[in-house]
Amino acid sequence: MRFYGLDLNLLVVLDALLSEQNITRAGERLHLSQPATSAALARLRDYFEDDLLVQVGRKMIRTPVGDGLALPIRELLIQMRATLENRALFKPADSNRKFSLIVSDYVGTVLMPEVSRRINQAAPLCSIEMFPPHNAPTEQIERGEIDLLLLPDLQTTTQHPSQPLFQDEFVCVMCQDNPLTEATLDFERYRLSKHVLVRWGEKRIPTVDEWFLNKFDVERRYDVVTNTFNSVPSYLFGTDRLATMHRLLAERWVGYLPLKILPLPWGAPRLTIAMQWNKYQQHDPGLIWLRGLVAEVANRLSVSA
């Protein structure tokens, strides 16, 4: 089908090319051969009378015209997909839809198992696929590649709708043999102790507790930096290390390892986990159903103030 002389099938190829800025990766994403992808790029260049992508050293970069097309084309495709998905009512029992979410392993442990059980009961043909956060998780919401983002509200964007889900608080976790107690764990001992930290993504982005401390120009000594919250307790057992953890997650781990939980010796703000979705999918019946289910489960989680 052509629209103003443009084969509309090429819009999908254009979106992949402008997003990946690499012919091979764009082809793999669309299940096209490299020659077919190159031929599509040639047709697009002819239509727009611009190179769209140019080789600079070993990389391809977008031309000004290509740069100006990237966001409008992406938003157009998201709106088209949302329109098609809104054609009929979503029937959980009959749908075989796959939902994609970005969640940390913390949220994946304390929230998502019950969500998945509810989906299994109400929509047995549906499935969920969870991805870990990367350097800029909101970009995948922006591009419509992910249905839901479940992360601290500090990491959401104001450009798309969001909803707070539940609150948690930070606590100090250590091995049961650690001689520190609530009476002796002051801020100076906390700061000078050896810590286990979590950072994620290629840029090793700090998590919320580290962000709070850095804001007040406080640095901790650390022995271990890992990339998942659930790996932290294993690095505490049998050592004198400390870790700052979410209470909901820490309470699960004290049932498996000889650990103890103490209050933090500094006033860490409470953590709010939020759910975010693309503004063009606001009225998607399937996502309305999923968001309601997630919110219902999350409503039972918040730590009491």
Strand and helix map with partners:
Blueprint: E1 2-3, E2 6-7, H1 9-20, H2 23-30, H3 34-48, E3 53-56, E4 59-62, H4 64-85, E5 98-103, H5 105-110, H6 112-122, E6 127-131, H7 138-142, E7 148-152, E8 162-168, E9 170-175, H8 187-192, E10 194-200, E11 205-206, H9 208-215, E12 221-226, E13 242-246, H10 247-253, E14 259-263, E15 271-276, H11 285-298
Parallel strand pairs: 5-6, 5-7, 10-12, 10-13
Antiparallel strand pairs: 1-2, 3-4, 7-15, 8-15, 9-13, 9-14, 10-11
Helix pairs in contact: 1-2, 1-3, 1-4, 2-3, 6-11
* Class computed from helices, strands and strand pairing: alpha/beta
What form results from the Cα inertia axes? globular
Q: Report the β-strand fraction as a percent range.
A: 15-25%
Uncertain runs are none
Characterise this structure.
- There is one protein chain.
- With 305 residues, this protein is an alpha/beta fold.
- It has helices at 9-20, 23-30, 34-48, 64-85, 105-110, 112-122, 138-142, 187-192, 208-215, 247-253, 285-298; strands spanning 2-3, 6-7, 53-56, 59-62, 98-103, 127-131, 148-152, 162-168, 170-175, 194-200, 205-206, 221-226, 242-246, 259-263, 271-276.
- Strands 9, 10, 11, 12, 13 and 14 form a six-stranded mixed sheet that branches. A five-stranded mixed sheet has the order 6-5-7-15-8. The chain has a two-stranded antiparallel sheet with strand order 1-2.
- A hairpin with a 2-residue loop joins strand 1 (2-3) and strand 2.
- Helix 1 crosses helix 3 and helix 1 crosses helix 4 (64-85).
- The mean pLDDT is 86.
